[in-house]
Amino acid sequence: MKKLILAASALIAVNLISCQPQKTESVEETVESPSTETSEEDQRPSPTEVKDGMIGSKAVQVHYGSPAVKGRTIWGDLVPYNVVWRTGANEATYLDFAEPMTVEGKAVPAGKYSLFTIPKESGKWTVILNSDWDLEHGHFQYDEKNDVLRVEVSPSWEESSSERLSIEIESPGLVLRWEKLKLPISVQ
Prior knowledge:
- The protein is mostly beta strands.
- The protein has one domain (42-186).
- It is built from two helices and ten strands; from the N terminus they run ααββββββββββ.
- The strands form three sheets. Strands 1-2-3-6-7-8 form a six-stranded antiparallel sheet, with no helix packed on it. Strands 4-5 form a two-stranded antiparallel sheet. It has a two-stranded antiparallel sheet with strand order 9-10.
- β4 (101-103) and β5 (106-108) form a beta hairpin.
- The chain is globular, with a radius of gyration of 29 Å.
- It starts with a helix and ends with a strand.
- The model is unreliable at 1-38 (pLDDT under 50).
- It comes from Algoriphagus taiwanensis.
- Residues 23-52 are annotated as: Disordered.
- This is DUF2911 domain-containing protein.
């Protein structure tokens, strides 16, 4: 009888162990199905724009957050006068120069630079290139001691309005447009 009970116990133990999940490595092929979810980037009110282009024979890339006017007063309100502005939204706007360039006649080595401006109610605006290009919070982390370049640029005001901020690689180098502002920056 003891042998029968011992055999039955052993059989039950073997069955219990065999029913446990096995710890074996396996490779499963995952098939991606189209998602209806939107990415974090798609949900941003000011989506990131990346522009690639050539100025002369030199490659230039611009990364910026593109805010919309949305019926707001931009200049002197949302973007105050006489204060450093990150020139976009979200992270700091930055330029990537593959080769040395000149900006408004001043030499700038190849590299990545954050772009800031100081808007003025009248007269020329200050355009700033800063060596600290990877700023998560734009102008909140701006440090003037890292400025590589400060130049004065004349804005113009157009009749038509651009709903979204854009920075285009076009003559005379870079042209920023937002609301009725057009800010051409000479880059060669």
